[in-house]
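Worked example 3 (structure in, sequence out).
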């Protein structure tokens, strides 16, 4: 990789931008008692706050200037993606190519700033009411000055992270937004390894169980790589057509359908929804609310069942939003393409939809297994199982995408790829 000057510059630029992001995660927001905040967050590891803290790389727990992370940008992008189905103007922009995508990206930036300011203001109000288990106030001097300062600081931090991600995408290697989330998750790996070895040294976990966990973790990673690269290739034949004095078409290609079309969106949405009651219950001291929240805490069978149901729902929902078989069938018919044995037009759309529905079922089962397995391990073995669920899917998927882009640079310059046999395909 280092033999290619352009690729070397891109990799170094990416590493420098990620280092800037990690430095920003350590800069605290003014006006907060760090010790009281840390003691408060120790009680919220299984709630929505713990989930957001994972995606921010621990910045939320320290309430740094990057506490909101990149989640407002992801939320704004997902909202716009869903609105393209409802609003005809956005649907038309999506079909206009690069110019339309630039306009949608601009809307996403505006939406990110608005969401970040709203979330920053709500976090400021919430911080003022927080106290540590010892009774210390998280915000020693509450008031409108603290609220406005926190809102502006967190919104500016999110905007800067968004700019960092776009710079990595344009001038670095890989998808910048995904790499920022990747960096935040992986940043916790050293502390997780240290905690595991400390439990072994104290006798709280046997070496045999640790070996089993390591082998199982490697097996799950291998399964994720295998499934994420899996495709169902529908053969597509293009009829010959004469344009002027030249004949075009006649070639055979394929339409690749991913097993997991929705990616990591279903477990993220499912985790957010199922953890929301547990987070609210911490603020509402009512007996039946506390009992309901206790029933859906991670590790229980009710939590696992609801988690799997929500994953299945969002797998089908997000696949239906992002992939339209009718548009694909119309484009194929427009350019003279057809699936052998299937009539063009409506019949082709129905066939693609039927195949995609079956693939989505397999993808939902796969995502559910990967996300529920770590929860079972945590409950049975009482270990800090770091690589699990949504975090594991993001880490492996982003690593595969980045490797695929680096390999494309190598192959363009007649170098071998990462592996002598086979090609690395990202998601």
């Amino acid at each position: 990789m280092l033999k290619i000057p352009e690729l070397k510059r891109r990799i170094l630029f990416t590493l420098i931008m990620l280092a800037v992001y990690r430095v920003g995660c350590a800069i605290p927001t003014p006006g907060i008692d760090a010790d009281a905040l840390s003691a408060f967050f120790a009680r919220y590891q299984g709630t929505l706050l713990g989930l957001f803290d994972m995606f921010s790389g621990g910045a939320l727990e320290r309430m740094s200037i990057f506490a909101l992370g990149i989640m407002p940008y992801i939320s704004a992008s997902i909202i716009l993606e869903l609105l393209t189905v409802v609003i005809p103007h956005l649907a038309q922009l999506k079909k206009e190519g690069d110019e339309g995508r630039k306009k949608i990206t601009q809307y996403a930036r505006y939406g990110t700033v608005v969401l970040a300011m709203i979330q920053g203001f709500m976090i400021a109000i919430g911080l003022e009411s927080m106290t540590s288990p010892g009774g210390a106030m998280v915000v020693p001097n509450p008031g409108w000055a603290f609220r406005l300062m926190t809102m502006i600081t967190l919104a500016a931090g999110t905007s800067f992270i968004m700019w960092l991600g776009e710079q990595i995408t344009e001038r670095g290697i890989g998808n910048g937004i995904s790499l920022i989330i990747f960096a935040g998750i992986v940043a916790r790996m050293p502390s997780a390894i240290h905690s595991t070895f400390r439990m072994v040294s104290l006798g709280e976990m046997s070496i045999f169980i640790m070996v089993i966990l390591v082998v199982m973790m490697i097996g799950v990673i291998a399964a994720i790589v295998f499934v994420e690269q899996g495709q169902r290739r529908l053969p597509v034949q293009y009829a010959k057509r004469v344009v002027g004095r030249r004949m075009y078409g006649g070639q055979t290609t394929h339409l690749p359908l991913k097993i997991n079309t929705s990616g990591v969106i279903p477990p993220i949405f499912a985790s957010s929804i199922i953890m929301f009651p547990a987070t609210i219950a911490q603020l509402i001291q009512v007996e039946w609310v506390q009992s309901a929240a206790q029933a859906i805490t991670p590790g229980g069978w009710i939590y696992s069942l609801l988690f799997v149901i929500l994953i299945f729902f969002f797998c089908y929902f997000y696949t239906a939003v992002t992939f339209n078989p009718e548009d694909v069938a119309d484009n194929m018919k427009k350019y003279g393409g057809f699936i052998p044995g299937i009539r063009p037009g409506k019949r082709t759309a129905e066939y693609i939809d039927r195949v995609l529905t079956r693939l989505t079922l397999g993808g939902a089962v796969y995502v559910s297994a990967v996300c529920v397995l770590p929860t079972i391990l945590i409950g049975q073995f009482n270990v800090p199982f770091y690589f699990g669920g949504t975090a594991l899917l993001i880490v492996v998927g982003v690593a595969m995408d980045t490797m695929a882009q680096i390999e494309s640079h190598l192959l363009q310059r007649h170098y071998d790829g990462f592996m002598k046999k086979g090609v690395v395909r990202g998601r």
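Notes: Residues 1-187 form a domain with the Preprotein translocase SecY subunit fold (CATH 1.10.3370.10). The longest strand covers residues 231-238.
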